[in-house]
Amino acid sequence: MAEDQGYEWKGTTMDYAEHDRTYMGFLALVKYGSIAIVAILVGMLAGLVASAGIILSVLAAIVFFLVASYILGGDTQAKTDRPDLQTHH
User: Fold this and answer.
1) Is 17 inside any structural domain?
2) Can you tell me the distance from the alpha carbon of 54 to that of 83, in angstroms, rounded to the nearest whole number?
3) How many Cβ atoms are within 10 Å of 64's Cβ, its own excluded?
4) pLDDT tens readout for residues 27-69
5) Average pLDDT of 11-24?
6) Residue 66 within a domain
7) What crossing angle do the helices spanning 54-72 and 16-44 adopt, rounded to 10°?
8) 24, exposed or middle or buried, with CB in 10 Å at 0-12, 13-18, 19+?
């Protein structure tokens, strides 16, 4: 067991602020990655189904990405003003 190994637990050492920043970064990556995948699909739809050509399909994908990012944008900053997320030592 841990007691037999000479291990001494000294309380929590988790950096909650860093954990929150990492989680917010992960959420932003998932959000913008999902938007990018759908934008690629919209570009493929425009180019392959609607026969819009390569330039218009790329333009449709870029416009969709920008519009969706603006609409779904939001707060991806870590909440540093919360006392429960401050660094504990």
Assistant:
1) no
2) 52
3) 20
4) 999 999 999 999 999 999 999 998 889 999 999 999 999 999 9
5) 84
6) yes
7) 150
8) middle
How far is the C-alpha of 37 from the C-alpha of 64, rounded, in Å? 11
58 lies in which domain range? 32-73
Q: In this predicted structure, what is the pLDDT of residue 44?
A: 95
Q: Is pTM, for the whole model, over 0.85? A: no
Where is pLDDT greater, at 18 or 63? 63
Return all residues near 18 (Cβ < 8 A) that are at least 6 apart: 87
Write out the two tokens for 82. 């919360």
Residue 72: DSSP 8-state = H
- How many domains is the chain built from? 1
